[in-house]
User: What shape does this take?
Amino acid sequence: MEKSPYDILFEPVKIGPVVTKNRFYQVPHCCGMGHLRPQAHAAMRGVKAKGGWGVVSTEEAEIHPSSDLAPYVEQRIWDKRDIPALRLMTEAVHEHGALAAIELTHSGHNAINLYSRIPTMSAVDHPINFLYPKQARKMSKKDIANFRMWHRNAALNAKEAGFDIVYVYAGHGMSVAQQFILPNMNTRSDEYGGSLENRIRLTRELLEETVEAIGDSCGVAFRFAVDELKGKDGMQFQEEGKAVVELLAEHPDLWDVNVSDWANDSKTSRFEPNEGYQLPYVEFVKGLTSKPVVGVGRLTSPDLMASLVKKGTLDLIGAARPSIADPYLPNKIKNAQIDQIKECIGCNICVSSDNFSVPIRCTQNPTMGEEWRRGWDPETTKPKISEQQALVIGSGPAGLECSVQLARRGYQVILAESKKQLGGRVLFESSLKGLSAWKRVVDNRLYEIQQNNNIELYKDSELSLAHINELGIENIFLATGSSWRTDGVGRSTRAPINGLDKINVLSPDDAIKDIDALKGPIVIYDDEQGYLAGVVADHLSAEGVKVNFVTPASMVSPWTDSTLEQARVQRALLTQGVEVICNKSIVGGEGYNLIAQCVFTGSKTTIACKTIIMVTERIPNCGLYDKLIEQEEALGENSKKHIKLIGDAEAPGLIADAIFSGHLAAENFEAPAEEIEKAIYMREMPSLK
Ligand code: ADP
Ligand code: SF4
Assistant: This one.
């Protein structure tokens, strides 16, 4: 067989007593399924194993009720009763020749214990990490002994559940082991505090005890955050981070290294465009240990992956998000289908689902999280049912995904777009500061359209009812998108804002078209409270345009908290000189002034303004759909058309929602109504035992 530059990625790696089939390692990542949705969890991890990942890990697995992460839905291994649910996952992973790993976790002051109601414990007395007025108490020697026993028992139970790799976890600010290690946190004066030797004592004990308990047949991995990215106020990789690796170098069978906290580890492309951004922090590790090392950093390029192994930077290519965006990434590299890899766009919608405690979703991969409920797999499609033809109108994310999925199923598709370029809202949004990676949503799908003979493409073709009738196609998917309204109606103001006659009122798209023509003072009014207003403010201020940001919310872009970006968004705006005015609704205008009302007291102030950019609400573009429906209704029983409104035209939302909507419509096309209904009601039922 011909040699490939990527062969090196398919070499086995020994991790203690177990051996991976290749170097592709899905590191632990949250998924909102955990202990509540074990079948969904097993199916999702199983698809990754099928896609070629050599190791597939769980998310954090709580080892004891004193580390209860509710309301977040993580994995649970409190006692033997958790074994059958976990075994579903290990079996699904083993079926495809991959190894299964579990991240044993005691969260210390990162747990609220809302369900168990056990007092929270940590290295020291410490407020818990969530906005809940409660503190963790300092662990006594007895607590430490108990914790070690719970960890050992969990390791034994993990082995019984079929796991091949068991983690000791000290990362993300989310584990008690790390809380003991961190110099600025652990101020204990006993043998578990003070010197670094003392602060790593607990981790050393955990590693030794885990190896002793299950090391005969399982590899023991150590997940360690080498740097907190807080400069001198935290752990730094050049100093204590390095010292920890030196002191524990040969203890684990595998080093899984990253940066802390989660917002730093899972940085979005908006604030960290570079693939492999964590490498400068972790590349020293291999020089200090003979054990294999895995690292992450949104690694999607096979060339970079191969060079990292060749250079001796990493032994295993770690991935959470790239494995979510494309569970088949390893197989695509193996089969020389690199152009077909769906690249992660770094948007963290996957992270937001965990933060909302619902099954994981992904902008690029609409099948993610639907493996069990709907039986979806990104590379396996339901074949067409008949020789029907379909017309898709609009080439935003919904229209593109719908067309591609219909074509994959084998249907003939006509895709019509009124603009010269395909991509809809993604073209606009990806042109803004920090969002260029989002263009991959369009590029990956356009590539597939070009490879597929089933799709006939018509650009620059605005379709009317007459055109549709002329085409005579009976199956019509309307992905006509939505438009930002400019009358001020939004979350807090349900009536149009009056008195703006002198002020130039613009939608976000129009504002960006001709930045030089914008007349100051400029106000961006964010009553949507999503991400876009913050991006527009960031974009304009980076271009040197002075803007004032007004919002009824108490912070800039509150939604971005769920994608781990909010602090970075607000910091970017403030450092670029944007004046941020929170807790104010705009209720009217007077000449060149806006009237702003405090959301708490109702008191009114004025804000000078010549241009206002309204980011408040979107209106679905469903005029064409309404006409079609009206026409069909007039035909009564003679109506033959299948008409489906999808994406933002049905209900404006995230790009991920539009992609999902397009995929779902294509999958449901010609499916029996009962089948469609069944999937909606699918859920994992609680046991009544
Ligand atoms: P979504 O997020 O739902 O995919 P977008 O707003 O991104 O929606 O995309 C909608 C696309 O539909 C835009 O590119 C727009 O130009 C196109 N479009 C809207 N109406 C028509 C029409 N009548 N004929 C062809 N294309 C249309
Ligand atoms: Fe990547 Fe976004 Fe998908 Fe997460 S949701 S895996 S960040 S594309």
Notes: The longest strand covers residues 219-227.
